[in-house]
Amino acid sequence: MNAQILIKTANDWFEFTKSKTGQLDFVGKWEKKDQPNVDGAQKLASSTYYTPSYYVYVNSALNCNPVIYVAPDVDVSDKNLFDYLVHIGPLLAAVEAKDSLLAGELYIRRSEVFELFSQVTEYILEPLSVEILFSMCYGRMQETEPEELELVYDSAIEKLDYDSSRESIDQAFIRYFKKNSAKFTLPLVGTNFYNWEHDSVPYALGKLCNNINPEELSTDAKKIRKAKHDFYENLETVVQAEPYNQYDKNSILVTIENPVAKISGNPGLEKAGHIRALAAKIIREAKPKKMNYGGKLASLSGNKIVVELEL
Predict the structure, then answer these.
(1) How many whole angstroms separate alpha carbon 90 and alpha carbon 109?
(2) Which domain of life, per UniProt (predicted)?
(3) Is 234 exposed, middle or buried (0-12, 13-18, 19+ CB in 10 A)?
(4) Do 72 and 42 form a contact (C-beta atoms < 8 A)?
(5) Which residues neighbour 67 within 8 Å (Cβ) at sequence distance 6 or greater?
(6) Residue 205: band (very low, low, confident or very high) from pLDDT cuts 50, 70, 90
(7) Among 279, 277, 282, 308, CA closest to 295
(8) C-alpha span between 189 and 193 (Å, rounded)
(9) What are the residues facing 67 on neighbouring strands?
(10) Given this model, what pLDDT does residue 95 score?
(11) pLDDT at residue number 96
């Protein structure tokens, strides 16, 4: 093995080192010409606190169970070290995929673990810290105070150049987004008012398994998984300002192709939900002339729809 500790996600490898004193360091994403060599390595499974099986659809970069490879001469039996290694993989994948909402939710879910090696975690989160803070504090209906995201908050306020004596945190985000482009993920709200959620899992997709050949079970199942994933990945998604909304001039509407209609041969966008008003207000004030924010379905699970957008 040509590294001490490697973590494999769907698309990338990440390298860690462990010193003789037990200190864990993050080397970064593997970008050497030679591919990682894991011959003789101890192979460890990541914690199931994150699993793609929970989702109807999730971004390709996150459609994995990260695997940890440990060199034969490296001891990772220490409780804290082992706990950290089996949890950090999904967070690495979320940050790399710029899924700010998932990264924030994973951090909150296991913050006590990630704070065991706080400097390493802060370094990993830093590139997406502003977006994570925004998604968690403004995008979700659940109330999250910025200070609850301790390792995110410190990096984010530094990048925002936030000074509470001269402006509010809202104003800091508006100023930052005026000057900088950003890509982040946000959940939709108000989905219960529209039919899209009801049609999000077409009966026809479930029937694909009905004709699986037992002799080709693994092959056919793999084809079905890929077909379903590609179907959701290619649903047209639009995140667009709705200034004509009589209830909220800052409204941002999300429309997505209806899955049932698309299978029936009738493509067309339908209302799926809105960006939360708190987030929409900051986005619209930061970029008042920008009316379309791209749009891509990031994940779909139960009654939760998450989209990716760009400023």
Answers:
(1) 12
(2) Bacteria
(3) exposed
(4) yes
(5) 7, 8, 43, 44, 45, 46, 89
(6) confident
(7) 308
(8) 9
(9) 8, 45
(10) 97
(11) 96
Asked if 63 and 104 touch (Cβ cutoff 8 Å), the reply is no
pLDDT over threshold 80, residue 207: no
Final residue of a domain: which of 150, 179, 208? 179
d(CA 135, CA 185): 7
Distance CA 172, CA 206 (A): 47
Query: What letter represents residue 99's amino acid?
Result: D
CB-side neighbour CA atoms (13 Å) of 295: 25
For residues 245 and 291, is the Cβ–Cβ distance under 8 A?
A: no
Structural domain of 240: 183-310
**Residue 162 has which token pair?**
């936030």
Residues 174 and 198 in one domain: no
Q: Does residue 139 share a domain with residue 10?
A: yes
CATH number assigned to the domain comprising residue 244: 3.30.70
DSSP state letters, the chain: --SSEEEE-SS-EEEEEE-TT--EEEEEE---SSPP--TTPEEEEPPTTS-GGG-SEE-GGGSS--EEEE-TT----SHHHHHHHHHHHHHHHHHHTT-HHHHHHHHHHTHHHHGGGHHHHHHHHGGGHHHHHHIIIIISSS---GGGSHHHHHHHHHHHT--TTT--HHHHHHHHHHHS--EEEEEEE-GGGSSTTTTSS-HHHHGGGGG--GGGHHHHHHHHHHHHHHHHHTS-EEEEE-TT-SS-TT-EEEEEE-HHHHHTT---EEEEEEE-HHHHHHHHHHSTT--B---EEEEEETTEEEEEEE-
Write down how long the chain is: 311
Hey, what amino acid is at 263?
Answer: I
Angle between helices 79-96 and 118-125 (to 10 degrees): 10
On whether the CB atoms of residues 30 and 92 are closer than 8 A, the answer is no
Tokens of 106: 């994973």
Average pLDDT taken over every residue of the chain: 92
- Take residue 147 and report the two structure tokens written for it: 């200070």
Q: Are residues 153 and 82 in the same domain?
A: yes
